[in-house]
């Protein structure tokens, strides 16, 4: 059992690590503007207990993931792979623990269940990023698994460890960890252990709760003492940014997000869930019913809020086990249909990426290898074996996201920028898109956002980057602060343009990287000329303050 878990963990690290060292890898604003920069400012201020971002105390999120990344920065330097290692290790750990959970539930090898986790889009994408969601999912899963093991083995040590894992999940992203762990534990008692007196659970529950509170409470309590507005900020995060954004589409967004996380196995998951409500379903038993109810109960809160699908990452393990159970128990013909449909969906995505890379001459070999992996996936659907299409899916995700996509050059900084000058002077970014996104990582320090109040109070002698559409105010008489020249003129800071360059950059998510106002006509021209120049945005950087006169 432990041997399988080790193999899953090592294999998960290998497939998820590929592409994480690239400046042009999978990313998003929350990664490059928040998660990567917060540990930099912590180190710059030597502040490990209190988080900092944009030269302000950051109270919105707990510190565990930032502690991990800051430790990595201290040991290995500020590198992309160091920041993203937390996602890689958490994704690999989630695969390993899922395998252990499957074996404990069904008394047989959980190796394929662990592989299924790695074969989902949610882990293939988010496991390559420095984000809070995959660590949250790992610790939530670990807490549930240890609680189940403690219950079956009557082990007080594992009971305490389960509470500690829940505390780690809470310190990774916040109290939303309870949305995923509490339903699993409650439903586990109601569905699996129906005849066990609840009074026998009082002592284990007390030990679990004590371990959780002892580890989870010190940091938020200290923040309440050190920063008077901590509770207000917490309420803002929980209520204002979530519950007041309910709309009629929230349930559909939640269901769609959950299905997208397990792509390309979305139709298999639907089949598995529907089957649980049919008494003659071959995979219906107490354990599978518990997994299905756990999944649905965890998704239910997102029916009443607007959220990114990655917030539901912790459902992937139970979804993966249900998918595997469905494929194992289905008759041959419907199983082959579902596997072929899943392979066709992923192949369509892979072919699109490969065609994009080949047509615009971005990377011939990476696209060719990706196409080869696509054909391998389609070939693997022949026959009755489940391991071949699952493994082929993992490797195809690896090539599309870790090998081919970085060759597109999204967010890539040019090597001919005045790096020595930038290293010697303050550098800021004045852009609603937070571009250039990877400037902090390339400089090895957190660049700042020069707010209008900051410019008025402190001035700015250095370099400021912005996008072309935010540089010049088309109407200087209008009182607009969205334009850099307006903000600098208002603050009385001299400036001059130092250079500009075109780039593809991520907008909100990694898949949208062309110019924000690119039209269909621009796309047709790009396809006709086989050039991405017309789809690129333009970044402008200016000298400001006293160095305008001193820099030749």
Structural write-up:
The chain is mainly α and 552 residues long. The protein folds into 5 domains: 1-131, no CATH class; 143-240, no CATH class; 242-330; 341-407; 419-550, no CATH class. The chain contains 26 helices and 6 strands. It has a 4-stranded mixed beta sheet. Helix 8 runs parallel beside helix 10 (177-192), helix 16 packs across helix 17 and helix 18 (332-359) packs antiparallel against helix 19 (364-380).
What are the main properties of this structure?
four-stranded mixed β-sheet; globular; 60% helix; mainly alpha
Quick synopsis:
With 552 residues, the chain is mainly alpha-helical. 60% of the residues lie in helices and 5% in strands. It is globular.
Structural class: mainly alpha
Q: State the separation between the terminal residues, measured CA to CA.
A: 66 Å
Strand tally: 6
Main pleated-sheet profile: 4 strands, mixed
Number of domain units: 5
- What percent of residues are in strands? 5-15%
Count of discrete alpha- or pi-helical segments spanning 4 or more residues:
26
Question: How does the overall form come out from the CA principal axes?
Answer: globular
> What's the Cα radius of gyration?
25 Å
How are the strands ordered across the major sheet? 3-4-6-5
Low-confidence parts: none
Mean pLDDT: 90
Helix content: 55-70%
What's the assembly state of these chains? single chain
